[in-house]
C-alpha cells in the first residue's frame, strides 16, 4: 500500500541541517551562500477513484494575517466552545462569531498575537497571548476586555482554561497559572530550558479535573496541579541522540492526548509513547518523529511524521496497523477524528479524509493557504490557514 520514503533519521538530519545553516548565517553573514540543504518536493496528489461526501461547509471568513510570512508561519488556532467562535490574526485582530458565522464583535489587541485563542463558553472568556508576553482576556460575547497580565516570555500556543485557572507555557521555560477572573499570577513553575529547540510549544491539556499536563522543549511531560502549581510527576518522552546540540533536540510540541485512562505523546526526536495511567506502566515506545499532536479512536493512535507519513498503531499494543506515504513531504497538520474518519491538512490548504480501517483517502475539501492545526468539536472541523482563512465544516449526515 505504501511506497518507500526516506527514513526518519534522514528527514531529521535534513531538518537539523536547515537549523544549523540558519544559525551559521546569523553568525557569519554570507558564509553559506553556496550551501543549499536537501529539500524534498511534496508528492503530487492522486485523484480519488470514488470520493464520498464527508464534510459540508458551514462558513469561511478571512480574518487577515498580514504579519505572517513563510519564514515565520506560526499557527493561530480558532477558539471554539459550545457554539461560540473567536478567531485571531497575527496582526492582533480578534473577532467573535455565532455558530452560523455571523460576526458579533471585533477588536484589536494592539500587538501581534503569537498563539491561538483559548475559549471557555461557561465563563464566556477568550484568552490570547502576544509577542511581547502579554496575556489578555476578553468577554467572548461582547469583545470587552476583562484583564491583562505581563509574563516573562511570549506564549506561542493557546492557554488551557480549567478549574478557574488560565494555564500557559511560555517560551522562556516558565509555566504559569493565572486566576481566570482577574488574571492575577497564582503560580509559576520553572522548567529546564534547552540551548536549541524547535520554535513552538505544546498546548497544555487536562490530565484530570485538578491536574494540567504540559510538555516542554527538553522532551519532558510535567503533571502540575492547576490550583497551586505543585508538581505531581515528570517524565522524559523525547530522547535526542548525536554529537551536537542540534542533533540532541527532543522537543515535545504536539499536545499530549489523555483518553480513557491512557496517555499518548510523541516527540521530535522520534518517540511515540503509550502509558496506562491506572497502572502507571509504559505500554510501548514506537519509533516515529513528529511535531504534531496525535489522534486517537477506540482502536488506534494516529500520527503524522516529519516526512509526511501517516501511520496508525494499535492503541493498546503499539503494533503498526497501516502506513501511508500518499502525502509525503506535504507539511502535514495533526490528525483529528471527525465522525468515523481521520482528517489531515497540508501545505496547499487541502484537508484529506482517511478511512481509519484501511488507511485509504476517501474524500477531500479545500481551503486557502497552508494549514498548520486542525480542531474538531461536536462533529465540526475547524481550520485556520497561515494566510488567515478560517473555515468550518459539518460532518455530513
Largest sheet: 4 strands, antiparallel
User: Looking across the biggest beta sheet, what order are the strands in?
Assistant: 1-32-31-30
Share in helix: under 10%
User: Whole-number radius of gyration?
Assistant: 20 Å
> How many DSSP helices?
1
Regions with little confidence, pLDDT below 50 for 5+ residues: 1-34, 68-73, 195-200, 238-250
Query: Strand fraction band?
Result: 35-45%
How far apart are the termini?
Answer: 30 Å
Class computed from helices, strands and strand pairing: mainly beta
Question: Average pLDDT, to the nearest integer?
Answer: 83
How many runs of DSSP E, i.e. beta strands? 32
Shape: globular
Can you tell me about this structure?
By secondary structure, the protein is mostly beta strands. It has one helix at 8-27, and strands at residues 55-62, 79-81, 84-88, 93-97, 103-108, 118-120, 125-129, 134-139, 145-150, 160-162, 165-169, 174-179, 185-190, 205-208, 211-215, 220-225, 231-236, 257-259, 262-266, 272-276, 281-286, 295-296, 300-304, 310-314, 320-324, 336-338, 341-345, 350-354, 361-366, 371-377, 380-385, 389-395. The chain is globular, with a radius of gyration of 20 Å. The model is unreliable at 1-34, 68-73, 195-200 and 238-250 (pLDDT under 50).
Amino acid at each position: 500500500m505504501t511506497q518507500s520514503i526516506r527514513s526518519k533519521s534522514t528527514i531529521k538530519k535534513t531538518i537539523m541541517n536547515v537549523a544549523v545553516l540558519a544559525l551559521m548565517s546569523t553568525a557569519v553573514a554570507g558564509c553559506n551562500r553556496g550551501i543549499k540543504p536537501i529539500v524534498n518536493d511534496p508528492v503530487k496528489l492522486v485523484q480519488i477513484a470514488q470520493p464520498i461526501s464527508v464534510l459540508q461547509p458551514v462558513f469561511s471568513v478571512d480574518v487577515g494575517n498580514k504579519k505572517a510570512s513563510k519564514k515565520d508561519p506560526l499557527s493561530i488556532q480558532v477558539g471554539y466552545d459550545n457554539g461560540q467562535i473567536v478567531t485571531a490574526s497575527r496582526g492582533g485582530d480578534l473577532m467573535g462569531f455565532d455558530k452560523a458565522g455571523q460576526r458579533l464583535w471585533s477588536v484589536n489587541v494592539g500587538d501581534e498575537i503569537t498563539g491561538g485563542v483559548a475559549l471557555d463558553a461557561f465563563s464566556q472568556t477568550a484568552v490570547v497571548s502576544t509577542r511581547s508576553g502579554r496575556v489578555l482576556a476578553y468577554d467572548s460575547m461582547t469583545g470587552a476586555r476583562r484583564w491583562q497580565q505581563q509574563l516573562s516570555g511570549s506564549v506561542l500556543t493557546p492557554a488551557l482554561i480549567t478549574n478557574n485557572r488560565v494555564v500557559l507555557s511560555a517560551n522562556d521555560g516558565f509555566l504559569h497559572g493565572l486566576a481566570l477572573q482577574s488574571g492575577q499570577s497564582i503560580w509559576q513553575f520553572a522548567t529546564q530550558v534547552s540551548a536549541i529547540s524547535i520554535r513552538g510549544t505544546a498546548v497544555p491539556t487536562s490530565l484530570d479535573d485538578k491536574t494540567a499536563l504540559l510538555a516542554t522543549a527538553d522532551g519532558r511531560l510535567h503533571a502540575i496541579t492547576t490550583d497551586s502549581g505543585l508538581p505531581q510527576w515528570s517524565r522524559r518522552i523525547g530522547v535526542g541522540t548525536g554529537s551536537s546540540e542540534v542533533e540532541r533536540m527532543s522537543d515535545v510540541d504536539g499536545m499530549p492526548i489523555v483518553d480513557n485512562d491512557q496517555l499518548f505523546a510523541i516527540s521530535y526526536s522520534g518517540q511515540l509513547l503509550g502509558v496506562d495511567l491506572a497502572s502507571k506502566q509504559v505500554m510501548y515506545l514506537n519509533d516515529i518523529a513528529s511535531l504534531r499532536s496525535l489522534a486517537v479512536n477506540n482502536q488506534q493512535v494516529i500520527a503524522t511524521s516529519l516526512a509526511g507519513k501517516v501511520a496508525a498503531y494499535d492503541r493498546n499494543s503499539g503494533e503498526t496497523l497501516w502506513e501511508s506515504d500518499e502525502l509525503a513531504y506535504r507539511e502535514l497538520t495533526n490528525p483529528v477524528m471527525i465522525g468515523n474518519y481521520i482528517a489531515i491538512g497540508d501545505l496547499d490548504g487541502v484537508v484529506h479524509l482517511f478511512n481509519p480501517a484501511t488507511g485509504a483517502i476517501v474524500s477531500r475539501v479545500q481551503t486557502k493557504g497552508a494549514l498548520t492545526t486542525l480542531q474538531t468539536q461536536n462533529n465540526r472541523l475547524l481550520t485556520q490557514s497561515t494566510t488567515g482563512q478560517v473555515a468550518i465544516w459539518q460532518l455530513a449526515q
